[in-house]
Amino acid sequence: MKATGTGGMNFAKALLAAGAAVATAVQAAGPAGPAPVSVEVATAHTTKLAPHTWIPGSVVSRDDARIAGIVAGRVMWIAEVGQRVAAGGALARLDDTLVKLKVADLQAQVERAQAQAKLAQTQLDRYQNLAATKIYSPSQLDDARAQLEVAQHDVARLTAQLGQAKYENEQSQIRAPFPGVVAERFTQRGEYLQVGAPVVRLVNTVDVEARATAALAFATSVKPGQKAMLRVASEQLTGKVRAVVPVGDERSRQFEIRVAFSPPQWPVGTAVEVSVPTGAERSAVVVPRDAIVVRQSHSYVMRVAGNGTVERHEIESGSAVEDLVEIRSGVQAGDRLVVRGAELLEPGQPITIVDPRPAADRRPAKDVEG
User: Fold this and answer.
1) Does the bond joining 263 to the residue before it have cis omega, within 30 degrees of 0?
2) What pTM, to 2 d.p., does this model score?
3) Residue 234: is it exposed, middle or buried by C-beta count within 10 angstroms (0-12/13-18/19+)?
4) Residue 154 to residues 113, 138, 148, 169, 209: CA-CA distances in angstroms?
5) Is the pLDDT of residue 267 over 80?
6) pLDDT in tens, 316-330
C-alpha cells in the first residue's frame, strides 16, 4: 500500500510539472494574432483627365422620316403601326388599275410607232435605190427622210412615256428606303393619296444615337471622336462624339452634339444625360471606385503596407468617370489599394493578396466631371 501511495504522489508531481511547462511555452509564444484576410488590390496611377459636365439630351434615330408617295391613287393597303419593315419592304399599296391600263396603251403606241418607222425606213431605201433612174424627184427623197425622222422621234417619245408609266406602276407600291418600325400612319385604307402626301412615319430603331445641345462656351472643348459618357437613371455607358455641329443658335446660344453608342439599348425618345468636356486636360491620380470607402463625414482607402498589413488613409476625391475616381489628396501614384473588402479591414490587419489588378489592366479615362 505504501508503494502504491508513493507512486501516485510521483504521478501527480509529473502532471503538475508538465502543465507548468505548457503554460511557460504558451506564455513565451504570446497571444495568437488574427488570421490574414484575402483581398483584391489595384494600383493608383496617373492619367490625363479633362473636367466635364452633364447636359440633357435625347436618343434619336439617324433614320426617321415621313415616307411620301410620288404617285396619286386610292390606298388599298397600309402597314400597321408598330410593324417592323425591312429595307425595300412594302409600306403601302395604291390602286394601280389605271396605271396598268396606261402602260398597256403606251405599249401599243410604241409598237405602232415602231411599225411606222420601219415603213418609213423601207420607203427611204426604195427612193435611194431608184435615185439614179430619175423616177423620183429630189423633193420626194427629202420627204422620205423627214418622215423617217418623225417616226423615229415618235418611237423615242412614246418609249419614254412608257418608261414613265411603268415607273409610276412600280411606285404604286410604296416601299421602305431603310429598315425600321412604322411609328405613325398619316392615311388610311380607302383614302385617296395625293402626290407628295406623307403615308407613314418610319423610324430606324437600331441605328440610333444621342442628340444634345451644349453651351457655346464649351464648343472649343468638344471634338469629334472624343469619348463621351451617357447615362439614364443609374445606367451608364461610354459613347463617342460622332459629330459636332459648329453652328450656334442665336437665341439659346447652344450648339448640337451627336454621340454614337452601342448597343442600342434605349428606345428612341429616351431622355439621357451626356458628358461634355469643359476645359483642358490635366494630370491626375485615379483609383478604382471600389477602393473608396465612403462614410458620412469622410472617405478613406486601405493602402497595402510593406509588412503585409493595411493602413487607413483619408482622401479627398474629385471628378469621376466610369469606375475611376480622381484623388486630390491622400493617395500617390503607385500605391496599392484594397478594392474588395476594404470596409471590413482595420489598420494593421494582415492580408493575403489574391488576383492583383495592376494599373495596366485598367483603361485610363479621358474625360471626367469637374
Assistant:
1) yes
2) 0.66
3) exposed
4) 6, 25, 10, 22, 53
5) yes
6) 988 777 678 888 998
